[in-house]
Structure formats: structure tokens, C-alpha cells
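Summary for the funding panel

The consortium committed to producing paired sequence-structure records for every protein in the target list. Below we show the first two records in order, beginning with the earlier of the two.
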Amino acid sequence: MVAGNSKQVESLLINNEIDVALVENSSGIQELRYTAFAKDEIVAVTGAKSVYAQKDTISVAELISAPIILREEGSGTLETLMQAFSQNNIDASLLHAAAHLGATEAIKHFLDYYDSIAFVSRFAIRKEVKARSLKILQIPGLSILRQFRIAERMGPQLTPQSLFIDFLFKNNIKVGI
């Protein structure tokens, strides 16, 4: 198993280094076949001790003035977030990006120590929200949904790859909402 952002794992697929990947971006590389897998929601979140945790809802103006923690370039999460901002007339260039981190786990830990807001998968933070170490912030009018997809190289499907994909669907494995 390999963890990486969507662009990284697509590159590994094309270079025959892996046989199947779960991606969250909207790319459509010709050498790859994509199958819709699971839906997910990206939410604004802050640490429970953060000054932002005093509220349940923040405005776009408050968001723009807050330090924001983002995923790195090439991340499907970042791509989805930027598309949602554009569709909702939010100028992403006005955001105060305090850090770009390479993994959701890093973002969750960063939020423990830094008053900031991040955008992560609702699914990825369910334990922290339940434990009240992270708090979801509502942004009126902003809903960020995405589709996870299974990516494979074009051509015949290898038996292990086919078995893995069948397992995901038959066992109702869900990575999102």
C-alpha cells in the first residue's frame, strides 16, 4: 500500500508501480480508467481550544481573515476546495494560508497547537469530533462535496486488482459519507 496525493498515485499507476488507487481529484488521464466509488464532504474544522471553536458558524469574511491550513499542491482535497471556492465566488488568493501540509493527519495534529482553520474530510475527523478535540465550523452557503474514484490502468484487469475492487464494493467499504 502506498499513501500519497491524487497526482502522485496516478503517476505511480501510469509507471506500473501500483495496480489500483483511490483518488479524489477530478482529473481524467487517458491512460487510466476511473470508477465512482464513494462520496465525501470537505468541512471547515478547528481545534477545540482554538479561538474559532467558540462559534458554530463563521462567515466568508471571517474565513478570509483567519489563518488557514491547506493540503499541498497535487492534493485532490485542495483541488476540490479551490473549485468550491471558485463556484461560490470566494477569492482564494485572499486566504491567509499559514501552512500547506501533506496529510490530513498532519493537519489534525497542527490544529491542536495553532489557532487556525483547515478543510478536511468529514469522514477523516469523525473520531476527533466525537472526542471533541476538533470542531466543525459551518460556513453558510458553502457545501463541499467530492467523489472518490477507483483509478486503474486501461486494459485488462489483473486478478488481484479485480478481487480488491470486488471486495470494496461487495463489503460496502466506504471512505466517505
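The next record, for a separate protein in the list, is shown here:
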Amino acid sequence: MDETIHLSERQIKILQAIIEEYITTAEPVGSETLEKKYNLGVSPATIRNEMVRLSDMKLLSQPHTSSGRSPTPVALKYYVDHLLKTKDISVSEEVALKEKIWNYRQEVDKLLREATKMLALKTKALAITATKDGDLYYAGAANILSMPEFYDYELTHHLFETLDESDFWWALMERQIDPFDILLGEEVEKRGTLNQCGLIYCKFTTPHMTGAIGVVGPSRLNYSSAIPLVRYVGGLIGEFASAW
């Protein structure tokens, strides 16, 4: 997706600042904010010029009602692939997560249900587990409603509709080659409102089933903390399931 993106060091710094500000605030970012909050070492005029160039490269978009700019799915994918520094899960947190689902390790249904609930709680997003057999578990729907992007009734209605469609989610997660992946924009849904969303997921394989667990949210998901959580919980399911 980003093979043809070539950015200068200055453009990378500006783009990274815009994305991190946008992830925090959900608001389009203006040059004044960048100048005040980020030590970019360039003049406001230079920041504005570079923002225009980044817009020309389809990395930033400008909502009609705002003078600021928002990162596009292409920019967010570039950020995740090249600029993101994920936070490590502490050993104590790993132990706590493992303990929470340890008692369910022998029961497939309960294990997947509890792992999904735990992931929603930790990421504050919508957590989804889909299996090849057509089962779908989800938790954290209320988390979605607290995010500004989902004040959009059409988007929220469509997202909640898909929670009755296990095939939709399994097809989405199954078609990628890598066991862990991040889908953004049209990778989630080509024609439909879910192109405003992001999905982080990890596949797992057990002697009796294949599935995937992940989180769904706006394209500005808190990737730095959500990625290691999804990886770890997906790995736990695989670890427990190997004994089934």
C-alpha cells in the first residue's frame, strides 16, 4: 500500500505529529497546534506548505468544516508499518491476563467468550472473535458509542448490523496470509461506511477449529497499546488450545 510513498525526514516528523495528535483528539489538526505542541524545528509557514504537499500525496484530507487536516487510511497504514512504536505489556499484566482466562482453558466456548470480553475491557474498543465454523463472539459495543466517529448513526448502525454476520468477519480475517494483521479503510470494506474503521486481529489454530480474535474501532485506534494486547491474547488462545 505504501511502496510508492517517499517522504523527507521533515515530512515524516510532521505526518507523525499529525497522526499522533489525531489519535488522541479525534479532531483535524491545524498548523498552529503542531507549532505549539510539537518541537518540529520549522516555521509555521513551512509546516503549512508541507501539509499541502502531504495532502497532494493523499496522506492528509481536509474536512469541509475545518481548517485542520486528518490522516487518510493510507497515512495511518504507513504510520503503523513504519513509524509506530508499540508499548510492551508488563510481565505483571501478562500474568493478570493469563489468570483471567486460565479457568476456562478446557472449554472452547467459555474461553473465547472470556478472552473477547477481556480484550474489549483492556483496549476500550469493540472486540470480536470469529471462527471458521461460523461462531462470532463480541464484547465492548458500548465502547464504540463513546467515540466521536460513531456519533454517525449510519456508521454505527451498519457496524452493529455486521455483528450478526459471522461470515463477514471471518472472511475478512481469513483472506490475509499473515496470522497477525491490521486492516484499514477500504481493506475493511470497499463500498460502505466501515471504510472509516480499523481492525487489528490475530489468528489462532487449535486441533478442532481455526479462528481469529481482534478489535474494531475508528481508523485512529490506539495502535501502540492495542497491537501487543491483541497479539498476546491471540497467542494465549493458541497456547491453551494446543492441549485440547
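Regarding this second record: The radius of gyration is 19 Å. The chain is about 50% helix and 15% strand.
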